[in-house]
Amino acid sequence: MQDFASEFTRALSLILEGDSELWAIVLLSLRVSIFAVLISALIGMPFGAALAVARFRGRRALIILVNALMGLPPVVVGLLVYLMLSRSGPLGVLELLYTPTAMIIAQVVLVTPIMAALTRQVVEILAEEYSEQLRSLGVSRLASVPVLLWDARLALVTALLAGFGRAIAEVGAVIIVGGNINHVTRVMTTTIALETSKGNLALALALGVILIGLAIAVNAMVSALALRAEREGLSHA
Predict the structure, then answer these.
(1) CB 47 within 8 A of CB 121
(2) Distances (CA, A) of 11 to 71, 202, 217
(3) 168 and 30 in contact (C-beta within 8 Å)?
(4) Which segments constitute the ABC transmembrane type-1 domain (predicted)?
(5) What gap in Å lies between CA 195 and CA 188, rounded to an integer?
(6) Residue 36, C-beta contacts closer than 8 angstroms, at least 6 positions apart
(7) For the chain, what is the radius of gyration of the CA atoms?
(8) What is the average per-residue pLDDT within 141-167?
């Protein structure tokens, strides 16, 4: 128990004293995850909105597929991205393997289905609510996508936060394509796994505290946005 207290005290010291190695890892983690979430949003949100309003054969099957992809096993995604980026793979010429870019690609693959599925759910409800108004204005289904996305912006921020929470906590895929290289691709989750196995519990605990803090902050923002959306819905009722 005393050993744990000692390691935890050292962990807090690393955080409060601004340890350069610790914060370099945190900043890289944030940079990779934020870029991945933004790219996922640019791909997944328009696709999810289009899927919500479009009507075509096979739409239901596509919705089921997108929902299923939300549960993609991270290590499988890491393996597939690794094969694509390896020297013998189709994108090997780009030499992206074991770089932050490879980690961003892996996270984009994981987060994009989440963005698409959550966006589809939100926009589908709005599309049904505003269908008569949009039809009276002569707005086609696909032309209504930007309007619906803008009206759903508050709920879509929640989707962004959910995607960020998924990305920042990822370890399986990023360790495969990033290699956990010191000062290059070492992020919070992979460092926690490595330093724990080495017995360097102070650094692992410090990163764990920061990671838990980020998770709490993200969930608090999601709850605040949900409460605000509920209040706005009551005020419009």
Answers:
(1) no
(2) 33, 5, 20
(3) yes
(4) 26-222
(5) 10
(6) 103, 104, 107, 108, 111, 167
(7) 21
(8) 85
Structure letter (DSSP) for residue 18 = T
Q: Which two tokens stand for residue 120?
A: 């589809």
Higher pLDDT, residue 122 or 144? 122
Task: Give Cα separations from 143 to 44, 52, 122, 131 (angstroms).
Answer: 17, 13, 17, 12
User: Which of 51-65, 113-127, 138-152 has the weakest average pLDDT?
Assistant: 138-152
Q: Identify the CATH number of the domain in which residue 105 sits.
A: 1.10.3720.10
Q: In which residue are the tokens 């980026």 written?
A: 85
Torsion of the alpha carbons at 62, 68, 71 and 74, rounded to the nearest 10: -60
What is d(CA 208, CA 171) in angstroms, rounded to the nearest whole number? 13
Round to whole Å and give the CA distance between 177 and 104. Answer: 10
Widest Cα–Cα separation across the chain: 71
Q: Could you give the CA distance from residue 184 to residue 73 in angstroms, rounded to a whole number?
A: 25
Contact 162, 118 (CB under 8 A): yes
Q: Which residues contact 105 (CB under 8 A, 6 or more apart)?
A: 81, 85, 96, 177
* Band of pLDDT at residue 173, cut at 50, 70 and 90: very high
How many domains does the chain divide into?
1
- pLDDT at 1 (0 to 100): 52
pLDDT at 61: 94
Q: How many residues does the chain have?
A: 237
Its domain, for residue 182, covers 2-236
Contact in structure between 66 and 116 (CB atoms under 8 Å) = yes
What confidence score (pLDDT) does residue 236 get?
52
